[in-house]
Specification:
With 287 residues, this protein is α/β, with parallel strands linked by helices. It has 11 helices and 8 strands. The model has no long low-confidence stretch (mean pLDDT 94).
Length: 287
């Protein structure tokens, strides 16, 4: 038997309805995503940088991110949508990126049209590269991917730089260059998401991040608005770090973790997540 390419599995899932892909910032979280019943997950460049101790300004190398992709893809067994920031350079670097991400086990990547060093998509003060330069990157990635199933998702940050109409213009140019889906970053209302879907027909990805420019919209509603994939890139990292910082404050105050026990994952729950039974031979999890 041959194993389906993860990109093929992602495309098939999209045909069944909206694909909900929560962010996983390491392999253990990725296994929890699978255990929770999701059918895809997302590797955020911001989260990957944050857990390494850096802000989301493009400081990690492609090799570092590919290691995270490989660990998460192996641990979860799910199709992985991975953030490729600005492609780690110009067209030649983008060619290397698409091959490296696919070999690392990703099902899809998204590339953005910001000037390097990039900024979080929900911050002001961004700059864009020329439309033609981004289209050339997309075209090169589409041409040099190893499998036709691997998905190229083009992200445009134009909404808060050059306006909604330019975002649509860029999206349609990126589709023409070979993008399989478009990721319009930083839209500010349900109406904008609906208008964008009408103006740029085809597969679309919506970013439902907290504390940003986009209001809280459910996955179901995004589907009604015409979106094929919805990511929650940082939600679980924010939940985890909120608990960590509060837990550390309580530990410092009390000198014991006794008061935190009811908030903890138990040893039994951890071993179940890892498919590990003490005293028995452990096998590499297949997702």
């Amino acid at each position: 038997m041959t194993t389906k390419h993860p990109g093929q599995r992602l495309r098939e899932a999209m045909q069944q309805g909206v694909v909900h892909a929560p962010g996983a910032f390491n392999a253990l979280v990725a296994r929890a995503v699978t255990q929770a019943g999701f059918h895809a997950l997302y590797v955020s460049g911001g989260a990957t940088a944050n857990v390494a101790g850096f802000p989301d300004i493009g400081l990690l190398t492609m090799t570092e991110v590919c290691r995270t992709i490989r660990e998460i893809a192996d641990a979860s067994g799910l199709p992985v949508i991975a953030d490729a920031d600005t492609g780690y350079g110009e067209v030649e670097s983008c060619v290397r990126t698409v091959v490296a991400y696919e070999r690392a086990g990703a099902a899809a990547l998204h590339l953005e049209d910001q000037v390097f060093p990039k900024r979080c998509g929900h911050l002001d003060g961004k700059d864009l590269i020329p439309l033609e330069d981004m289209a050339a990157k997309v075209q090169a990635m589409a041409k040099h991917r190893l499998s036709k199933h691997f998905m190229i998702i083009a992200r445009t940050d134009a909404r808060h730089v050059s306006g909604f109409e330019d975002a649509v213009k860029r999206a349609n140019a990126y589709r023409a260059a070979g993008a399989d889906a478009i990721f319009p970053e930083g839209l500010q209302s349900e109406q904008e998401f609906a208008d964008f879907a009408k103006a740029s027909p085809g597969p679309l990805l919506a970013n439902m991040t907290e504390f940003g420019k986009t209001p809280d919209i459910t996955v179901q509603r995004f589907g009604e608005l015409g979106y094929s994939i919805v990511i929650h890139p940082l939600s679980m990292m924010r939940v985890a770090m909120g608990s960590v910082t509060r837990g550390l404050a309580q530990l410092k105050r009390d000198g014991t973790a006794r008061g935190l026990l009811d908030q903890m994952q138990t040893r039994k729950e951890l071993y179940e997540l890892l498919a590990y039974t003490p005293g028995s031979e452990w096998h590499f999890p297949k997702g």
